[in-house]
Amino acid sequence: MKRPGPRGPFSSALLSALAGSPAEASGLSALAEAAATALVQTPDIFHDEDLQLGLFCLYELHYTGIDGVDDGWEWHPDLLAVRARLEADYEAALRARVRLPELPAATAEAVAATLFALTGDDDGPSVSRFIAASATREQLHEFLVHRSIYQLKEADPHSWAIPRLTGRAKAALVEIQADEYGGGRVHRMHSALFARTLRGAGLDDAYGAYIEHIPAVTLAALNLMSLFGLNRRLRGAITGHLAAFEMTSSIPNRFYARGVRRLGYGDDVALYFDEHVEADAVHEQIAGRDLAGGLAETSPELVPDIVFGTAACLAVDAMVGEHQLAAWQAGKSSLRIPLPEPAAAAQA
Fold first, then answer.
1. Residues 6+ apart with CB under 8 A from 147
2. How far apart are CA 293 and CA 210, in angstroms?
3. What's the rounded mean pLDDT across residues 171-179?
4. CB of 291 within 8 A of CB of 173?
5. What is the pTM of this model?
């Protein structure tokens, strides 16, 4: 991914450190101090541009990396210590914000029923209905830009859980992920389908192309997945998160496809959303009963985190939706930096 610009003292110190060699690392004590200061001073970690960008960059070292950054930084102990400090505060903020329902018994049916009820009762803002009925082309493009930071590497954060699960839960996760990765056909990978959607809308399909435009709250949603996926102790949470993803996908994607066509785009742009209408209607059953339910039966102690992961997904996604709709209803851009006019005005 291209190297982003800093958004505050912490991300500035981090990007400055990453510009050097990990073998000759210097200034990491200053980086740790910058992180500590930023964490103390932030009024809202979910919307903090400096902290969320910094955490995103630290996680990105474990994915495709950042242009110009030495791969040796990935496991540098001082950098991992800084990341752990950010993760601890982010997780604490999540647990303070998210309210859990009564926990189910550790059976597949009971856990699935709780997750379906939790996602079914979700009353978060409906961006999908807005896109279907009211969005302008400019707003659709902004929506696609928000989604690009995850969709262009779709499934990767959840795949961290594969080696951490066993038995029924592992088999269910692999079944879901195989579909996400196109069943071995590169052009059917969901990330490839989303790239096609971006191109069809006149947008850049390079991963991270819009990093400067994407606000903290959207980065927070992606960082949530990486937090859960990269920490083995949170394998229950990443399982619950994926279950929430699948259980809340099919109907919204039908609305997104409707909006894409209403705005004059063709099947090539809508294909990504069409694909998820059918696939996720199947995936939600696998995710609820075999993945989350299967994990609960083999590891009953993880039931609280499974439910937490689902609730956290709904809560953070609601923040992103509220941010987008509030901006659009006020006649403003929902992006940190509005899209350039040529991209915003692109025609199908």
1. 194
2. 37
3. 97
4. yes
5. 0.95
Report d(CA 309, CA 242) in Å as an integer: 8
What is the token pair recorded at 119?
């996602």
Q: Are 249 and 317 in contact (CB under 8 A)?
A: no
Torsion of Cα atoms, 148 then 150 then 152 then 154, to 10°: -150
Q: Which residues are within 8 A (CB) of 144 and not within 5 positions of it... i.e. 6 or more apart?
A: 197, 198, 201, 203
User: How far apart (Å, rounded) are the C-alpha atoms in residues 153 and 65?
Assistant: 12
Residue 295: the pLDDT is 98
Which of 3.40.50.920, 2.60.40.1180, 3.10.129.10, 1.20.910.10 would CATH assign to domain 108-344? 1.20.910.10
Residue 346 confidence (pLDDT) above 60:
no
What is the mean pLDDT of the segment spanning 259-266?
98
Query: What is the percentage of the chain residues whose pLDDT exceeds 90?
Result: 92
